[in-house]
Design brief:
Blueprint (H helix, E strand, L loop, with lengths): L3 H19 L61 E14 L4 E12 L6 E4 L4 E7 L2 E2 L1 E5 L2 E5 L9 E10 L4 E2 L6 E7 L2 E5 L19 E10 L3 E4 L2 E7 L3 E12 L6 E4 L1 E7 L5 E7 L13 H12 L9 E4 L6 E2 L5 E4 L8 H13 L8 E2 L6 H37 L18 H18 L1 H15 L3 E2 L1 H12 L4 H9 L13
Parallel strand pairs: 1-12, 18-19, 19-21, 22-23
Antiparallel strand pairs: 1-2, 2-8, 3-7, 4-5, 4-8, 6-7, 9-10, 10-11, 12-15, 13-16, 14-15, 17-18, 20-21
Helix pairs in contact: 1-3, 2-3, 3-4, 4-5, 5-6, 5-8, 6-7
Length: 511
């Protein structure tokens, strides 16, 4: 068992992440601490996009051949764009001055029209566009805030592939998300650059269809002046010395939601290792950080292999973590590379920080491989990752440790329901509220108690197997749970996800 003081510290560290992401104080100063956060061999076949449109209605555009300027998300209806399916992005970015973040870039988009198109939209903020072509022909364009409307010289036939090339230059504008009151996207700080874009910050540095429904594969090429280095998603394929600058070439060969794109620039110490199951790991730590900054990440290989047994094989080619030498009060599960502000790392409490590491790593299955179909389903990301923390406690301390975790979290949610709202119906302005984390995690434990361990873990594996590389909704998960367990579970999910009153958990005498 954990020593009580260790447990309390772990809970405080995990609470910090949720407090920042929720952008509110989750509890008054006297509130007790609680536990909240914040490989298979890759296929040689080209990934096939499995995005499904949402059911939410969209306004009919004035021009029936114009792609919509939103995908009809129930919380953020103008996120993303309709009329096409993106297949690949190639980002070729040259950072001329890291201190000011002045850059010039070319983004190439390969897509397929899902309707006949006279025009279509991309999400893109700031910059001077110096050239824009569609199928190698100059295209007209219009800008209105974050909306970039592209008018090709010739209409695009339904089901036809097309290529968009956008050349641009300037300094990224700070992005203010509708979901979070602090800057997201491309962030410049004293000594470097990092990218943290959930839910809509990617448009701050490249033109994009910025909704998880339109996943794509990525080539990321970044040139920086020496002595700076670059860490980004995917596999580093090539490093090229240009004399006074260096070019880094990364490949992301598995479908990725746009908000998970990350580019980080600093002077790094790189660490490589491999899990016992053969999953390669590369970690990056800002060179100015203490030598022992890597201690909380030493067990990532164990986590990868353990979660692979519970959830199904790790879905990507590589994994790793990156710690920047700046405080930004969060960690984010960017695909294949989770990033952390230095304030998320407590070297006086390695076990506590490991809990946050487990949270972000579990997201690789739930949030990255399976992404939300609608942002209102965010508990499918955060509740699952929070329960990943619980499973890591169980790995170290057995069922008794898990029961202690569940009891502590339940008592916290029960005591402060105003901070831990029903997770199935978040508000657009409060997407990352504490309920999608804690009560979302409790929902999964309630399911486990209802169906038994064998069926529960089979549900998690079946869910990932069916929806990996694509998107899922709460209804999709419930359907899988009922199929595997053979039980009717609507009453359980309605109570845990939507009822204002926290349901009892009689198996642990919690009510």
């Amino acid at each position: 068992m954990k020593h009580p003081t260790q447990k309390q510290t772990l809970l405080c560290i995990a609470l910090l992440l949720v407090a920042v992401l929720a952008c509110q104080s989750l509890a008054p100063p006297a509130l007790p601490a609680s536990e909240v956060p914040p490989t298979s061999v890759p296929s040689t076949e080209e990934p096939v996009s499995t995005e499904e449109p949402t059911e939410a209605p969209m306004e009919e555009p004035a021009d029936p051949l114009a792609g919509s300027d939103g995908l009809g998300d129930s919380l953020y209806p103008e996120f993303g764009n309709g009329g096409y399916d993106t297949k690949t992005y190639t980002l070729d970015i040259t950072v001329k001055d890291v201190g000011t973040s002045e850059l010039e870039a070319v983004t190439t988009i390969e897509a397929v029209a899902t309707q006949e198109l006279s025009r279509f939209n991309l999400d893109f903020a700031g910059f001077d566009i110096t050239s824009l072509t569609v199928n190698e022909e100059a295209a007209e364009f219009e800008r209105d805030g974050q909306e970039l409307t592209v008018i090709p010289s010739q209409r695009l036939a339904k089901d036809s592939p097309f290529t968009v090339v956008v050349e641009y230059e300037g300094i990224p504008d700070p992005m203010q998300s509708e979901a979070l009151p602090f800057p997201t996207g491309w962030i410049v700080y004293d000594g470097g650059i990092f990218v943290l874009s959930e839910p809509d910050g990617s448009a701050s540095f490249y033109p994009v269809n910025d909704h998880p429904l339109d996943k794509a594969i990525y080539t990321i090429i970044v040139t920086v002046p020496k002595p700076y280095e670059v860490a980004a998603n995917g596999v580093l394929e090539e490093t090229k010395d240009n004399g006074d600058s260096t070019t880094y070439h990364f490949e992301v060969r598995d479908l990725m939601a746009s908000y998970l794109t990350t580019i980080n620039i600093n002077d790094f110490d790189e660490e490589t290792m491999e899990s016992d199951g053969g999953i390669p790991i590369r970690n990056y730590y800002a060179a100015s950080l203490p030598d022992d900054i890597n201690k909380p990440f030493a067990r990532q290989g164990e986590m990868l292999d353990y979660f692979g047994e519970l959830f199904g094989p790790y879905p990507f080619e590589i994994y790793g973590s990156l710690v920047m030498d700046t405080e930004f009060g969060a960690a984010l599960e960017n695909q294949t590379m989770s990033i952390y502000g230095v304030d998320m790392i407590n070297l006086d409490d390695i076990e506590g920080t490991e809990s946050v590491v487990a949270h972000e790593l579990a997201h690789q299955w739930f949030g990255d491989s399976i992404s939300v179909a609608d942002w209102s389903d965010i508990w499918l990301n955060e509740g699952f990752a929070t329960y990943g923390e619980a499973l890591w406690v169980e790995y170290d301390y057995g069922r008794e440790g898990l029961d202690e975790w569940v009891t502590g979290v339940y008592n916290e949610v029960s005591a402060y329901p105003e901070f831990y709202l029903p997770p199935g119906n978040p508000a657009a302005y409060n997407l990352f509220n504490g309920g999608v984390y804690l009560r979302g995690g409790l929902t999964l434990h309630a399911l486990r108690l209802a169906v038994g361990d064998e069926a529960f873990f089979e549900i998690l594996r079946a869910y990932h197997e069916r929806y990996k590389g694509g998107n899922a909704s709460t209804e999709d998960f419930i359907q899988i749970a009922e199929e595997v367990s053979g039980k009717e579970l609507s009453e359980l999910f309605d109570a845990w996800l939507y009822d204002e009153q926290l349901p009892p958990m009689p198996e642990l005498d919690l009510k």
